[in-house]
Design goal:
With about 290 residues, the chain is an alpha/beta fold. The protein has two domains: about 160 residues, 3-Layer(aba) Sandwich (D-Maltodextrin-Binding Protein, domain 2), CATH 3.40.190; about 120 residues, Periplasmic binding protein-like II (D-Maltodextrin-Binding Protein, domain 2, 3-Layer(aba) Sandwich), CATH 3.40.190.10. Helix content is about 40%, strand content about 20%. The chain is built from ten helices and ten strands. Helix 1 crosses helix 8, helix 3 crosses helix 10 and helix 5 crosses helix 10. The two termini are about 30 Å apart.
Length: about 290
């Protein structure tokens, strides 16, 4: 099982959970191999060129759809180069600020972004990341403007927002959750359309901006041309894993809600995500990458 992110990160942790579940179900060893770089595109290209015999899988994230929308040209087709198997889970992002920030709540954030366009800054884990585009979509939906400050991931965005160097952080529950629970960070809004169980007391952005709904996702795919019987077997194994309360609990510790889908539904979902982020990029005037 290939993934395109650093060892020990969210994708790596999830890959190992999924690999263990598949190993148990299939009766074979599933080995995780990280090929980080280019927002996951190195891993995606590698798998797109692998033999479609069922022995090479890839764990894709929401960044797969963002890359497809952001890059003018990729060395693989983000939809046609893969045989999609199933979703594994979804999770929201959190917009937060330091506990003593003058930004009292989400309504206050929206008002400032309208009245003083660009005054408020927000972090992301990098230009073109899902976090970046979530912040851009928030500003567009609010009819205001926020200033994007890209980082290279890690905990530096959290450190800087707590120190008052930036106003807002847009990141995963993994990064923001402990600080929110500790009371040093104030959760202003979750990007999901409904309240998220592991974010008690944090309202949804949709409570102020109806219709706002951003959830990143984790899914499993094979190279294009994989045999239907292989796809069906893997899909059934993932269905069993996702319906297992113990597996669900392990994902919940990472702020992820387990989800399952058919191969056709997974492909349609990924295509719809690419379309959605392409529209956000165009509306926000984000420069595409060559």
């Amino acid at each position: 099982m290939i993934h395109g992110f650093g060892a020990g990160g969210n994708a790596d942790s999830i890959s190992r959970l999924v690999a263990a579940a598949l190993s148990e179900s299939l009766g074979v060893s599933v080995v995780v191999d990280a090929k980080p770089g280019a927002g996951g595109n190195i891993a995606s290209e590698y798998v797109s060129r692998a033999s479609p015999d069922g022995y090479t899988l890839i764990l894709l994230t929401g960044g797969h759809a963002v890359s497809a929308a952001l890059y003018k040209k990729l060395r693989f087709n983000p939809v046609d180069s893969f045989t999609f198997v199933s979703l594994v889970g979804t999770f929201p992002f959190v917009v937060a600020t330091r506990a003593d920030s003058p930004i009292k709540d989400l309504a206050d954030l929206i008002a400032i972004s309208r009245q003083s366009p660009g005054k408020l800054s927000f972090s992301s884990v990098g230009f073109g990341s899902t976090q970046h585009l979530t912040g851009e979509l928030l500003a567009l939906s609010a009819g205001g403007k926020l200033t994007h400050i890209p980082y290279r991931g890690g905990m530096q965005p959290l450190t800087d927002v707590l120190a008052g160097q930036i106003d807002l952080i847009v990141d995963t529950i993994t990064v923001t959750g402990p600080a929110i629970k500790a009371g040093t960070l104030k959760g202003l809004g979750a990007s999901s359309s409904s309240p998220w169980p592991s974010l008690p007391g944090v309202p949804t952005i949709a409570s102020q901006l109806p219709g706002f709904d951003v959830k990143s996702w984790i899914g499993i795919a094979l190279p294009a041309g994989a045999p239907p019987e292989v796809v069906a077997k893997l899909n059934e194994s993932l269905r069993k894993a996702v319906s297992d309360p113990a597996f669900q609990g392990r994902l919940e510790l990472l702020g992820i809600r387990a989800e399952f889908s058919t191969p056709d539904a997974t492909q349609a979902f990924v295509a719809s995500e690419i379309k959605r982020w392409s529209e956000v990029i165009d509306r926000a005037g984000v420069e595409k990458v060559n």
